[in-house]
Amino acid sequence: MNIRFVLEDGREVHEAASAGEMLLAVARRAGVPIDAPCAGNGTCGKCRVKVAAGEVAGEVSKHLPKEAYDEGYRLACQSEIKSDLVVDVPASAFAYQNQIRVADFSSPGAKEAFDAMRARVTEGEYAEAGGYAVVQATLSEPSLDDPQADRERLTGAAAAALGVEPGAVRVSLAAQRKLPVVLRDCGFAPYLLVKDGLILDVAPSEAEAAPLGLAVDIGTTTVSAVLVDLLTNEILAAASAGNAQIRYGADVIGRLVESAKPGGLARLHEAVTRECIGPLAGKLCEEAAAEPGRIVRTAIAGNTTMAHLFLGVYGNHLRLEPYVPAFFSLPALRGADVGIGIHPDAEVLLAPNIGSYVGGDITAGVFASGIAEKDSLSLFIDLGTNGELVFGGSDFLMACACSAGPAFEGGEISCGMRATDGAITSLTIDEQTLAPSYEIIGQGGQKPAGLCGSGLIDVICELFRCGAIGANGKFLMKSDRIITDEWGLTRYVVAHPEDSASGAEIYINDADIDNFIRAKGSIFSAIRTMLASMDMDADMIEDVYLAGGIGSGIDVAHAIGIGMLPAIDPARYHYIGNTSLAGAYAMLASGKAAARVQGIADGMTYIELSAFPGYMDEFIAACFLPHTDSKLFPGGI
Amino acid sequence: MNIRFVLEDGREVHEAASAGEMLLAVARRAGVPIDAPCAGNGTCGKCRVKVAAGEVAGEVSKHLPKEAYDEGYRLACQSEIKSDLVVDVPASAFAYQNQIRVADFSSPGAKEAFDAMRARVTEGEYAEAGGYAVVQATLSEPSLDDPQADRERLTGAAAAALGVEPGAVRVSLAAQRKLPVVLRDCGFAPYLLVKDGLILDVAPSEAEAAPLGLAVDIGTTTVSAVLVDLLTNEILAAASAGNAQIRYGADVIGRLVESAKPGGLARLHEAVTRECIGPLAGKLCEEAAAEPGRIVRTAIAGNTTMAHLFLGVYGNHLRLEPYVPAFFSLPALRGADVGIGIHPDAEVLLAPNIGSYVGGDITAGVFASGIAEKDSLSLFIDLGTNGELVFGGSDFLMACACSAGPAFEGGEISCGMRATDGAITSLTIDEQTLAPSYEIIGQGGQKPAGLCGSGLIDVICELFRCGAIGANGKFLMKSDRIITDEWGLTRYVVAHPEDSASGAEIYINDADIDNFIRAKGSIFSAIRTMLASMDMDADMIEDVYLAGGIGSGIDVAHAIGIGMLPAIDPARYHYIGNTSLAGAYAMLASGKAAARVQGIADGMTYIELSAFPGYMDEFIAACFLPHTDSKLFPGGI
Questions:
Q1: CB 3.0–4.6 Å: which of A2, B34, B83, B194 could bond B54 by disulfide?
Q2: Residues of B numbered 128-187 whose beta carbons fall under 8 angstroms of chain A's beta carbons: which are they?
Q3: In chain A, how long is the greatest CA-to-CA distance?
Q4: Minimal Cα distance from A146: which residue of B?
Q5: B279 alpha-carbon distance from chain centroid
Q6: Cβ of B147 and A332 within 8 Å?
Q7: In chain B, what residues touch A329 (CB-CB under 8 Å)?
Q8: CATH superfamily entry for domain B2-92
Q9: With b meaning 16 or more CB within 10 Å and e meaning fewer, what string describes B522-557?
């Protein structure tokens, strides 16, 4: 049978299929991007597509209301193919994968944190010259009497320009490939990019020979990157994109399960390299009007699972007792090893992992946060698809992970989304009318598309404050905005269809609230357990640094209000942005910083929370608003 | 329009085409292998296919007789598409590309030469240990109390096994990728392949960790390779295949022209790497029951054009004055650079070029021939698609190339073919009846498929001896075997259709004879010119070493008889086989030999024949049977 997928940009993809196949499986085979954060179990509703012609077997469900069903909408993961099909794939079906946005160090808090760190690696104690030189060489022109080959002609002239012996100069294959044409384009006076005697690049102009660096944060949900001029360490361009692996599952466990299937490791490896980081690097270079082949150094930070999948290393043992990674550090990688289209001889630095669930995003992030250099005690919290905590200072550092799930990046929440354009990032609710007021990420004037992590905190906190939900997260009242559907699910309507970007209602239901409460409970109980393991409590924390995908919009008072973060003075909380990306930038800019990240990893103690007997009790107690022990939150909301 | 290609093995390839497109162009786009040694000019007739359904515009021609036309045969390069088509592609249409045959050092002469050289690199002055070690490491098993990562666990144990510091041990990415599964397969006691502290491979058994090497001769027409055990230097398997680039032209000039077109360099690069050497390495490894990833060292020898195209380096300047290569030598290449599926960290050695038309096949070949170590004067002749000559000994070496064209490998000859199964390799003609007797390469009992280089020498020499052709190569008589066709071409029938393997007549016509005479004239005049440039003549040559694709079947007396080789004692001629491949093997087996090949290249003087005023006169004089100056061939035939 012939399946024709029509994407919103008009692009069409045809794929042959057999009757009885699931539509999502066929889309995956055809490379059609359809999100499936629940890994195709029918429990997230993100894979909704419209069958414009033909027939599939599939039913109305919690995630597919009757009105949508009647309009032809179906969940791709629950639709068995019955005939030839024409399938419209709306942009909402691949929002996680597709939406590219400028990664920023510009949001409040993040900018100051980044600038302070940048000063450390470019002027301060970690400043270090990169060793790159751009020099012009002047070659004699070949003739019938002087038919010397281009390379040998070049190495002689380069040695003279560098003041070394010709034997000490090597030519990378990438430079060799460009050499014949470049020499003749520039009258045999090319500019050379040289490091340690290796000619990495040849170009007709000085500007085109300048070395570029790429820093990448591989998040489970979002991949962010910056392009850097390695001579000045200036950021030339920044961007982020959804991690294309999301079509194989929302969290690291789902990805690891998929990776252990036949061909699965290759699929996940390709998804993050060729389909995600490669195009992202291409886009950054396009902005900077440069070829990706000019990227001669890259630093990558990601959690342990992401690091394994990025390198195509089998990682399934990460999720199986005794939870052992295939590597902590992997030095001396080259561009040709990693398949993202950069210079084949590029140095590839990978931020080191320290355990199965505390990876390079955290070791790089701790460097960026600066807590490892402080005498006082700090708590570092990275809230992305996974939650990781680091506590300590220059004397010691302890780290643990909590299985918060993807709720903080909008995953497994009906109308959840990443903190990208259209996301509701903060919200208040009128106590009388229950009508919301909200702020949206974007240029202004547009309608909301969904709720990101900080918006979710606000809506739950506000519903609780208004008495619309109880301590267990269940709805306590009905109104024109609090509606129970035929499945028994009660929802709060944030935006009516006519007020939303997609024309579909934006809401949060009691299942979403329950998911989010478990996520926040996981964070809070992890903090309590880690501190308790050292006979410490939250009062001893001087500063709390919040990092990660939850975004700068987070209202700390609200997060304390729902019992997600300890009830200490909100002024001691600092949002410091994407520290994984900032740390990767530091490694890119300075070999000393990269060595320090390795030193931080070597000195960090990894705690396995599940090994602590009290952890599960702490977790259960934290799965209330704000907590079963209200003394922990004396201030109320 | 829809074009369906049906290959002889039943495989089908569908490709969309527009009316007016040429069938050969569509086949190329679809990746259907169809030979076109004349680069699609309609002058070789090798691209003959059968249109089983549909219509093309195309006519009867010299290379497509009426009978074949009426049966539906067409030349793909001359057929304009008019409708949907079903096209049968017979094996004969890709004989150059497809036929794989064991590359041998076993033919008379070649075996002795190879064995003598092998002794030099394995026991004699060039013998050298490869530096590879296979050791077993014993690791502790991980547990919840000892969750050390696999890599860090390995480097500790490997350092202990090797007696070095853990910091001195590195793990290649390829080994890292296998590590998690191998460790658990072998009870944490893996065998390691180590060189210079780098763990190249991990395997559950000692045998599976042994290092493999690949030596490759990239000929313009034929690519040959041997797989070698690098611990013992034993040859484990040998094979050859047609160079898949042949569909873009028979000789280096055609390839260079194609490479300068948009996308052309990538096409030629892919054709020789992914389509030819990659599968060849795969086949050799299959024979040896090993993975291609175990190939950790490779040595490649080819002419200058082949070296450029193999590495994807723009080579068009080779054919443009002042004829300058992009490189002579290119050291320090890695497996990941070359795209042939071997270990990414494999050492890649490329035999050095010395000029635009004297390449690594000759520098490696001269090492293999041993002439560079001799006090006496030798002439080394490599007769493949190109002809190259080296004259000298331990005191000096001079080299030149002659544009002999592909006739010695059967190219641009109506019924010419490579020296593979079915080729007529030697032939005599009865003076009375003009009936031929011939020998065929193969198992015996089969019918001939065509004429290879040595067979062509024989048939021309015999026709001349019998008085059937004159000194200018034109036919002097008619008979039942000497027939003039409607195009005015006269041919000698070597085998009637019923006596040939394909059912098509095997013949040689006056155009073929003319082509071959120009090829042999090119060789002879080059020898004369080179010797004359030093005031020497052929009598001063102690030994002549014949190498290359012309094959061991060459009858030296016949080659002298037609004026191709100097008239010196045939006992001074030695056929020594594929010296390019033998030299590549030497480089693989010994770093000292590789250094010596570079030394030979550095010391060799390259002569541009066209710069000698007398060369063109010499060439014209040599384009007769045997020569205009019969005193040069006092013995007659």
A1: B83
A2: 142-144, 146-152, 170-171, 173, 176-177, 179-181, 184
A3: 95
A4: B322
A5: 15
A6: no
A7: 151-152
A8: Beta-grasp domain (3.10.20.30)
A9: bbbbbbbbbbebeeeebeebebbbbbbbbbbbbbbe
User: Closest-CA residue in chain B for A608?
Assistant: B144
Distance, C-alpha B44 to centroid of its chain: 20
Q: Which residues contact A256 (CB under 8 A, 6 or more apart)?
A: A305, A315, A316, A318, A319
Q: CB contact, 8 Å: A13 with chain B?
A: no
Find all residues with CB under 8 Å of B549, minimum gap 6, and list them: B219, B221, B222, B383, B384, B385, B408, B409, B418, B419, B453, B578
Give the C-alpha separation, B377 to B537, whole Å.
12
User: Rg of chain A over CA atoms, in angstroms?
Assistant: 26
The CA distances from residue B374 to A613, B105, B397, B570, in Å, are: 82, 22, 11, 20
Residues of A in contact with B331 (CB under 8 A): 170
Residue type, A303: N
Judge: B337–A333 Cβ closer than 8 Å, yes or no.
no
pLDDT bin (cut points 50, 70, 90) of residue B95 is: low
Q: Other CB atoms closer than 10 Å to residue A224's CB: what's the count?
A: 24
Best A14, A150, A348 member to test B by mutation, with max B CBs in 10 Å, is A150
In this structure, are residues B148 and A325 in contact, taking their beta carbons and an 8 Å threshold? no
- Is a pLDDT exceeding 80 seen at residue A37? no
Q: What is the CATH number of domain B110-127+212-350?
A: 3.30.420.480
User: How many angstroms separate the CA of residue A354 from the nearest CA in chain B?
Assistant: 9
**CB-based contact, A333 to chain B, within 8 Å:** yes
**Which residues in chain A are contacts of B337 at CB distance < 8 A?**
173, 336, 344
The rounded distance, in Å, linking the Cα atoms of A328 and A601 is 9
- Closest CA relative to residue A248, chosen from A24, A482, A492: A24
- What letter would DSSP give residue B300? E
Confidence of residue B286 (pLDDT cuts 50, 70, 90): very high
Provide the ipTM. Answer: 0.86
DSSP one-letter code for B358 = S
pTM as predicted: 0.86
Cα B600 to chain centroid distance, Å, stands at: 22
What is the C-alpha to C-alpha distance for residues A320 and B603, in angstroms, rounded to an integer? 62
3-state secondary structure of A450: strand
Domain segments of chain A as ranges: 2-97, 110-127+211-350, 132-209, 370-406+517-631, 407-512
Using CA atoms, how far residue A573 sits from A109, A270, B503, in Å, is: 10, 38, 88
Q: Quick check: B505 and B496 in contact, CB under 8 A?
A: yes
A165-214 pLDDT tens trace: 989 999 999 999 999 999 999 999 999 999 999 999 999 999 999 999 99
Q: Does domain A132-209 have CATH number 3.30.300.20?
A: no
- Locate A578 and state its tokens: 């994407």
Task: Tell me how far CA of residue A348 lies from CA of A198, A200, B255, in angstroms.
Answer: 16, 14, 36
Domain A110-127+211-350 annotated CATH 3.30.70.580? no
Q: Is A487 helix (H, G, I), strand (E, B) or coil?
A: coil
- pLDDT level of residue A100 (50, 70, 90 thresholds): very low
Q: Which one-letter amino acid corresponds to residue B4? A: R
**How far apart are alpha carbons A428 and A441 in whole angstroms?**
16
Rounded to 10°, the helix A579-589/A360-369 angle is 80
B315 touches chain A (CB under 8 A): yes
Residue of B nearest to A151 (CA): B327
> Between chains, do A330 and B171 touch, taking CB under 8 Å as contact?
yes
> What is the C-alpha separation between A617 and B571, in angstroms, rounded?
96
Q: How far apart are CA B152 and CA B169, in angstroms?
A: 10
d(CA B398, CA B605): 5
A436 and chain B in contact, CB less than 8 A: no
